[in-house]
Every structure is written in C-alpha cells, then in structure tokens.
From TrEMBL:
<feature type="transmembrane region" description="Helical">
    <location>
        <begin position="63"/>
        <end position="86"/>
    </location>
</feature>
<feature type="transmembrane region" description="Helical">
    <location>
        <begin position="125"/>
        <end position="146"/>
    </location>
</feature>
<feature type="transmembrane region" description="Helical">
    <location>
        <begin position="98"/>
        <end position="118"/>
    </location>
</feature>
<protein>
    <submittedName>
        <fullName>O-antigen ligase family protein</fullName>
    </submittedName>
</protein>
<feature type="transmembrane region" description="Helical">
    <location>
        <begin position="263"/>
        <end position="285"/>
    </location>
</feature>
<feature type="transmembrane region" description="Helical">
    <location>
        <begin position="7"/>
        <end position="25"/>
    </location>
</feature>
<feature type="transmembrane region" description="Helical">
    <location>
        <begin position="211"/>
        <end position="232"/>
    </location>
</feature>
<feature type="domain" description="O-antigen ligase-related">
    <location>
        <begin position="222"/>
        <end position="362"/>
    </location>
</feature>
<keyword id="KW-0436">Ligase</keyword>
<feature type="transmembrane region" description="Helical">
    <location>
        <begin position="349"/>
        <end position="373"/>
    </location>
</feature>
<feature type="transmembrane region" description="Helical">
    <location>
        <begin position="166"/>
        <end position="190"/>
    </location>
</feature>
<feature type="transmembrane region" description="Helical">
    <location>
        <begin position="413"/>
        <end position="430"/>
    </location>
</feature>
<dbReference type="InterPro" id="IPR007016">
    <property type="entry name" value="O-antigen_ligase-rel_domated"/>
</dbReference>
<dbReference type="Pfam" id="PF04932">
    <property type="entry name" value="Wzy_C"/>
</dbReference>
<keyword id="KW-0812">Transmembrane</keyword>
<keyword id="KW-0472">Membrane</keyword>
<dbReference type="GO" id="GO:0016874">
    <property type="term" value="F:ligase activity"/>
</dbReference>
Amino acid sequence: MTANSVFKLSFYLLLLTLFILPLPIGSNRPWAWSIFEILIAVISLLTVMTTPPKTLYAPFKHILPILVPIFLLQVWTIAQILPLGGGPISNDINQSEISLLKGLSYCLFIACCAWHLTDKNKVTTFCYTLISAAAFQALYATYLQYSGESHSPVLSMQLSNRATGSFVYANHLANYLLIGVSLTIGFLISQLTRKNKSANLKRQLMSVFDALLSSKWLIRVSIICIVVALILTRSRMGNAAFFVSLVATSLLALWLMKRPPRVLKWLVLSFIVLDIAIVGALFGIEKVKERVDSTSFQSETRDDVVALSIPLIQDEWLTGTGAGTFYTAFPQVHHYTIHGLYDHAHNEYIQFAVEYGVLPTLILGLMVLYCLYSAIRALKERRDSFYQGLAFGCIMAIIAMLMHIAVDFPLQAPATTVNFLAVLILAVICKTQTNQKQFSVK
C-alpha cells in the first residue's frame, strides 16, 4: 500500500472509531475505553508514519488552543501521581493513572483530527459520521423502548422506562443525542439557500418545504428521530438544554449573520412546533414534565452532593485530590448525611475542581469559551454557508453542554467526551479553515 492509501485508511479508522465508540455501553467500562485507547494509538501511528515530516506540524496552528490545555492537564495528572515533596498528591494513584491514559488518548484524538480535517470534504464526512452515529443511537434507543423486552440484545442490560440506547445511563444518552441533534440542525441550516431580499412570502414558504421535503429529507428525518429518542430519555436538563440552546442560538444567528437564510426563522419554528410540540406529544413529553413536577428539593440530593463537595475544593483548591479520585475523596465529607452512593458529583464543574484544582478547571473553562467565541465569530463573519451552518451547530452544542454538565456527569463517559471534543475542534475549524486543502500526503 502507498503512503497515501495508508493515510486514507487511518482517516476511515478514525471515522469508524467515532461511530462505534458509544456502542459498548458508552465506552464507560475499562475494557471498552481500552479498545478506544488502542484504536486511537494505531490511528495516530499510521497517520504519523505516512505524513511527511515537513507537514507533520502544519495542521496544529489553529488547534493548539484545544490541544495545549488538554495536554497540560495530563502533565498535571502526572505531577499528581509522582511522589513529589514526600508523597503523591492523588488520593488514588490507580484511578489517576486510568484518567491519565484516557487523557492522553483524548490528546491523540485531537491530533488525529488536526491531521485529517484539512479540507471541507473531510470535515463534511466527519460531520456525517457524527450525525449517523447519533441517528443510529436514536433509532436503537427508540426500538428498545417499544420492543417490549426487559433486557437489551447487546450485553443483556436491563431496560427501564427511560431510553438508554447502548449506554448504561439515560442522561449520558441524552447528552450524546444533544450534540448529535445540534450538529444535524447546523448541517441542515448549512444546506439552505440564501434568497435575495425581494423574495416574497410564497417563495419563503416554498424554501421551507424544500428544506423539509427535498433531497435534505434524510437530515430532517434524522433530527426528528434524535428528538424522539431525547424525549424518551426523560432527561429533564437534557430536554431543557435542547430547547434553550436551540432558541438562544437561533436568536444569535438572526442577529449576527450578515446574510441569514430567509427561511431560517421558519425552519426554527418548525423545529419547535413539529419536533417539540407534535412529536413530543406523541412520544411522551408529558413524562418529562412529570419528572420535572415531581422533582423537589427534599427528594433531590444532587445539590447536597455539590454543597458537601465545596469543603474539598476549599481544602485542595491548589492541587486537587487527584484525577479520577472523587469516588475516594467524597466519603471524607459525606458523613452519611445523604442516602445513596455518589461516585460522581453530578456537576462537572465541581468534580473537575475537586480532582484537578481550581486553576486547571479555569483553564479548561477558558478553552471551551474560546471555542464558543470562535464559532460565534464564524457565524458572524464567514460567507461560506457550510461553515456558518457548522458554527450554528457547534454553538448550540456547546451551550447545551454547558447547561447539562451543571447537573450531571456526561464527560465521565469517553463516548460523550470524545463527541464534545469533536464539537470544540469543529468550532475552531469553522472559523479558521479555508476552502483549500492545507497540506497533502504524497
């Protein structure tokens, strides 16, 4: 095989990895995330072997604001593990070592994306893979909910009244679908034609029907399927984050875009009316409402976990307790004042601050805000409709994620973490990438 063929093979392996990552219970078990770590290592090796040395570092110029903070986090994790100053910082070296391997794999994933996502065609294929994986999860989750089975056909996981798909936890599926539906909506918007100002109402409505029923129908059906599955997860914040992020991003787009598609507002209205109102009524949006109504401060203990975790941050704000050690650190302040076992904080902001310290958490927060800013700039300044639509999807996904991680722990599952990293990478790409290929392998 030629170097070019091997390079293409590594790209297709990257796409395959993205698609299969959520299948083994969200890759949230040691054997499952080990498969991801091996695959991404092989992909990285094949890519480096077939990339000319003079172009090996060229793609990293724009992706460094993501790669550097993630890499520095792994350096800090090593410092937490090493016996510096008399003993290691980490309360559980084994868990920190596991987190380190995951983190290094995330760095390799970012690097592979930088090497491969060098032109619009590859970015489009990459987005199609993310959309297809989300649509597959949605169809699988919906099938399980209406199959009448008590256990899933894969790994025989027990099913409940909340859709989980191939994940163990319904809220992890909800977060995965949130990212998928955001990118799918953005992709559909990128396909809309820019009409001139003289277009009358009839032509605008025809454009809406074109977006809903023409060759773009498969994308539109994917959105409906993902929304159905999202509703079936009964996730309170998942569904709320979808609605809020959709409305907020739409208003932002109508305000910032220099030449927004004239049918954009009608298309967004169709999402709200068709997907949330009609589809939601058919597939149980009232069940989500019931969960919200039944939620009370007396029965909900996740806010207690957050409150009890604050002393850990105050005591270890500089060093943290060690990557992956919340399970070990939390019993120190638990005192059995709340019922149930909490191995995660159900708030990623709190958990990252507990495990890594305040400064690394702030750096990661700035990284995410930079990616959000890049997508907003692309939405405002890019004239290419593809990158504008991609920016819309990335903004929506980031807003939804920032909301969801305040009440849950989706970033503890490798499948959702990799998906979110993909969104951050795409957010930077839609701002910085030109329409020409940046480098090639010969």
